[in-house]
Every structure is written in structure tokens, then in C-alpha cells.
Amino acid sequence: MDKLKNKVAVITGGNSGIGFGIAEAFKNEGATGAITGRNQTTLNRSVQALGNGFVGIQGDVTSQDDLENIFQKTSETFGKIDVLVVNAGGVVDGMPMGPISDVTEEGYDRYMDLNLKSAYFTVQKSLPYLNDGASVILIGSSAAHRAAPGMAIYSAAKAAIISLAKGLSLDLLARNIRVNTLSPGSIDTPVFGKLVPEARLEQVKQAWIDIIPIGKQGLPSDIGKAAVFLASTDSAFIVGTEILADGGMTNIS
Ligand code: NDP
Questions:
Q1: DSSP of 7-70, one letter per residue?
Q2: Which fold, 8-245?
Q3: Record's Gene3D superfamilies (predicted)?
Q4: pTM (two decimals)
């Protein structure tokens, strides 16, 4: 119950799906902190659902100014930051992933900006505010290991996240800041609604379930529990590595 007691966390993209599941799990373990997102309506709703101890800070993670503001405001509100979850990412608005023949240079750049560049600068902008001894969790994806149709750019960006966690862990060793990647497999979140039309949603989810050895999609709470482990001192000896939470899809399917 108290694995994160007195810890202050920032969870980017905490107003939806996996990010909200992580925020709930952190709250259940005694943490307080900030969730972020661009959509003020879902941000308000999520903060209300979390109850006391969490604030919502609006911001676009591809904007350096917004990132600066997120950490400055969290620090002003809570006085410190112990845990950073770099979760915002996934599908670029109005630009579903697709095969190479359909991808424009702008589309390529926007996917890389959202899923790789923003992760790097989220960590960089947090550093002046992050406590020594902090835990940084980068949300990767099983897509880094297992190809799926039309997802090459996203997969490449998420594969680079794993390297980022290694390199940043080394860079931040002197401050005892651990950086790890937590890579979800197929998790039931609103992202599927951004990828496929409503009429095909159940069919697409079933296609994922068919390749997940334990026979079901994960829930945001499954990722939340793994994030609690990486955020807490239980994982103090785990540095610069990746934990896959994918129902066995990467390694045994
Ligand atoms: P959702 O679409 O439910 O959530 C995405 C979150 O990211 C939202 O909170 C959204 O908030 C935020 N976000 C998106 N773009 C931006 C932006 N430019 N600036 C700030 N925030 C942004 O997806 P999931 O919960 O499924 O995905 C969360 C993470 O998990 C992503 O990194 C994704 O790649 C990863 N993942 C998901 C898997 C899955 O099966 N669901 C599998 C593997 C990895 P807002 O729109 O308000 O800005």
C-alpha cells in the first residue's frame, strides 16, 4: 500500500489509457504528483477521478516551453520530483500509422518527434527539478521487438527508447538517477480507437489477443503495477534495462 509514500511523480499523458493506469497505481501506493496531457477536458476528468494529491498540467510534449512549464509547475506545487514517467506518445493526431508507400516526410518527423525526441527532451527538461536518486521510466513498446504491419517508424522510435534508457542511465549515474524502459504489449486503451474505425475495433483487438500467449490484452492497471515496481526502491538494482509487460507476446509466441 505504501511503496511510494511521500513520493512525487510526474506522468506525461496521464489523462488517458496507460498513463492514467499508472497514475492510479501510484496513488494507491501513496504517491502524489502531476499528470499531463493536451486535452483539458480529459485532464480535468482524470484529476477528479484520482482525487486529492494529483494536479493536471496541460502541455504538448513536443514543445520545449510546455515541458519546461510542466516541471516548473510540479516543482512549485510539490517542492520536488522523485519519479518521472515518460508515457505520452503513440499515435499522431489525424495521422494513423501506415505502410511506407503512404508515409510523408512530415509524417515521419511527427512520429519521431512524438515517440522519441519528446522522450529525450522530457528527461532533459526534468533534470533541474528531479531529485538525486529519482526513478525515470520510459514507456517503450513490444513493437520495438515484434514487427506489425505499417508500424515501422513507431517500432524504430520505440526501439531507440531502449537505447535511450541505457545511455541516460550512464549519463545520470553520478546523481543516482535510474532510467529504465517499461514496454507494454497490446493494452486495451483508447489508442485503438485512433488507429482503426469503430466497426473494426473488436476484430483488431481479437487479432492481437490471438497472438498473446496468455490469451488476453493487458489492462492499464497491469502496466501500473509494473511501473510501481520500477518507481520504488524494490527495483533499486535495476538500471538501464527493459521490462516487457506483454503477456508473453515477444518472447514465447
Ligand atoms: P492513449 O492514446 O490512450 O494515450 C496517449 C496519451 O499521450 C494521452 O494521454 C495523450 O493526451 C498523450 N499525448 C499524445 N500526444 C501528445 C502530445 N503531443 N503532447 C502531450 N501529450 C500527448 O494511448 P496509450 O495509453 O495506449 O499509450 C500510452 C503510451 O503507451 C504511448 O507511449 C504508447 O506508445 C505506449 N504503448 C501503448 C500500447 C497499447 O497497446 N496501448 C502498447 C505499447 C506501448 P492528449 O491527447 O490529451 O495530449
A1: -EEEETTTTSHHHHHHHHHHHHTT-EEEEEES-HHHHHHHHHHH-TTEEEEE--TT-HHHHHHH
A2: Rossmann fold (3.40.50)
A3: NAD(P)-binding Rossmann-like Domain
A4: 0.99
